[in-house]
Specification:
The structure holds two protein chains of two kinds. Chain A is α+β, with helices and mostly antiparallel strands. Chain A has five helices and 18 strands. Chain B is an alpha+beta fold. Classes of the chains: A alpha+beta, B alpha+beta.
Chain lengths: 424, 178
């Protein structure tokens, strides 16, 4: 039946065509012919457009995602591509230098519509370790309220959220943003974020999956503790990789940017760590965590300064240490202060910041039970250096660090660092 | 009958002329709200200013055909409005600049900001720095305009956008467009 109809239609069409060719001078038929031509042209056009999307129809238009990005669709068709990278040279006193592609992070974003977007950052650490640093879906309910779900950064202090190499001085991130705040600290969760420009406030509030404090070893017999004295909570990060969850954690931050040049942040993180189901009833399988952070950043003309203070209280650390044989402190705490000055005149495109930073942090700020505070965990560091911003998104860094601890008679260890950083 | 038809057609045509914005409704609403508060007026019309190609080509940044408006109340010009986009780190934001009749910046506002990073440029207190600027002014980020930590790219972008617009104003002024 359909075939018959088609044939009839085709015949009529041919007839029409012939008539038109024969009577080109006839105005009426000319009109019909023209409209027919327009219709045909239109159809061809539509199919050409379709084939650009659907490459099966026409291999000439075959493009892959990378080409689509390169074709200049970035930022206009909803696709965003970006990234940052840190290449470092570290030489600790009495040790050989280490050269490292410390981080290479590729950002991809897609805006489905004006309200819905997906953001992901794929991270390569030390060339061959692959992580997903962020991957979340955001839905804007209104100008002031965005809902988010996925793998997100925990808002604590400055560096965990703002860690692109052109945004901070020093080849290495501040040490406190490693030992006290385990940057890059990210977990899977849901939450809400937004800002009120009338009040110059930004807020974030999330429910996260937390640190994993205990696991079993490969045999499934021995209990392994992931948290410890020297690195604090760092070993407990699950990073969204098959992470276990049995306790909910809350995280929030408020930023105030109402005084020009100044930005203040207050962050909080509260909850309990995670443990396997076989262990969760055992005393010491998990610990409670309450962390508070205060940070400030200031910029005026050629001068910039920043600082942060972090205090983390860990409950049940005694039971935890008894169960796992670890030396986790009951309080971790630290602060840093940094000042920098642009040595180049302000009318220059490039900037050369000379900076100095002092850090004081202790992963045994307090201990519970029989655990003695380890003086070597009470650390002080000076960093002196230069950040040469050769372009807005490209920086060459050099600095020297003096690392000391509270052990009586301990020697200060020096470390020389060079680095290249980009952000685009 | 024909007269009626003509009338209704001309009404439709006229309303198209008057409402010749291609601005999305969401933006228009925000612009209207700002005009109302800044100029303390409720009865006003936004009228497109058309710029000839010959003049537009001279501009530092071409002004699109739905970007620059004069604000009229009782057929008196009470100010000007300029709406445009500028780049943030990974997206674009929409901003508004309101001028008084002497072409002095009366207000700037970020109408829509589309990414998380750098949204601090929407801060009322920060944007206040642009108020009072005039066509001959040149602004330098971090020198005339105070930086925002954690929003460098967008703050710089907004400063650039302001500079371009102020330069454009000067050119438009000398060509008697404004």
């Amino acid at each position: 039946m359909d075939l018959k109809l088609c044939r009839i239609f085709a015949r009529k069409l041919t007839k029409l065509f012939i008539i038109n060719l024969n009577n080109m001078r006839n105005l009426n038929n000319m009109r019909v012919f023209l409209s027919l031509m327009i219709a045909v042209a239109f159809t061809i056009n539509i199919s050409a457009q379709n084939s650009r999307r659907d490459s099966i129809n026409n291999p000439n238009y075959q493009v892959n995602t990378a080409q689509r990005l390169l074709n200049g669709n970035i930022n206009t068709k909803g696709v965003t591509v970006g990234g940052y990278a840190e290449l470092t040279y570290n030489r600790k006193e009495a040790k050989n230098a280490e050269l490292d592609v410390q981080r290479l992070v590729l950002l991809f974003g897609y805006k489905f519509d004006d309200r819905t977007q997906f953001i992901t950052e794929i991270e390569f650490e030390h060339v061959n370790e692959v992580y997903v640093e962020q991957a979340f879906l955001q839905y804007s309910v209104s100008d002031n309220v965005n809902l988010r779900a996925g793998l997100m950064l925990v808002p604590m202090g400055i560096i965990n959220e703002y860690h692109e190499p052109t945004t901070f001085n020093g080849v290495e991130r501040p040490s406190i943003d490693g030992a006290i705040i385990p940057t890059t600290w990210r977990e899977i969760g849901v939450g809400v974020s937004g800002r009120y420009n009338e009040a110059s406030l930004r807020y974030q509030a999330y429910i996260f999956n937390g640190f994993e404090s205990t696991t079993f070893d490969a045999d499934g017999t021995t209990i392994v503790g992931n948290l410890g004295g020297s690195k604090g909570l760092r070993g407990g990060r699950q990073k969204g990789a098959k992470s276990t969850m049995n306790n909910i954690n809350f995280s929030g931050k408020v930023d105030y940017y109402g005084i020009p040049g100044l930005r203040l942040g207050l962050s909080g993180y509260f909850g309990r760590t995670q443990s396997p189901v076989e262990l969760e009833a055992t005393a010491g399988a998990d610990v409670g965590l309450a962390m508070l952070g205060f940070d400030a950043r200031y910029a005026y003309k050629r001068f910039t300064a920043r600082g942060q203070f972090i205090n983390g209280n860990i409950s049940d650390s005694e039971a935890y240490n008894n169960l796992t044989g670890k030396d986790l402190g009951s309080q971790i705490q630290g602060y840093y202060l940094e000042a920098a000055y642009n040595l180049l005149p302000q009318n220059k495109r490039q900037q050369l910041f000379g900076f100095v930073r002092f850090e004081d942090f202790d992963t045994h700020a307090a201990t519970e039970g029989s655990l003695l505070r380890k003086e070597s965990y009470d650390r002080q560091e000076w960093t002196l250096g230069l950040s040469y911003k050769i372009a807005r998104g490209a920086v060459v860094k050099a600095d020297y660090q003096f690392k000391d601890n509270a052990v009586v008679g301990s020697e200060t260890v020096g470390q020389l660092n060079f680095g290249v950083g980009v952000w685009f | 009958m024909i007269l009626k038809r003509f009338l209704s057609l001309s009404i439709i045509g006229l309303s198209f002329l008057l409402v010749s914005f291609t601005l999305p409704n969401k933006l228009l609403k925000k612009v209207n709200k700002e005009v109302t508060t800044v100029f303390e007026i409720t009865n006003f019309q936004l009228k497109l200013i058309s710029i000839e190609d010959s003049i537009n080509n001279q501009l530092v940044k071409k002004i699109g055909n739905d970007h620059l408006y004069k604000i009229e109340s009782d057929s008196e010009i009470i100010g000007f409005a300029y709406i445009d986009k500028a780049p943030s780190h990974t997206a674009e934001f929409d901003y508004l600049i309101l001028l008084d009749p002497n072409l002095i910046v009366a207000k700037t506002k970020i109408l829509i900001y589309r990414e998380d990073y750098g949204g601090e440029i929407g801060s009322k207190r920060w944007l206040k720095q642009f108020i009072g600027k005039k066509p001959s002014d040149k602004l330098r980020y971090e020198e005339d305009i105070i930086a925002i930590s954690g929003a460098t790219i967008s703050a710089n972008s907004m400063t650039n956008a302001m500079n371009q617009f102020l330069q454009n104003l000067e050119i438009l002024q000398t060509n008697n467009v404004l």
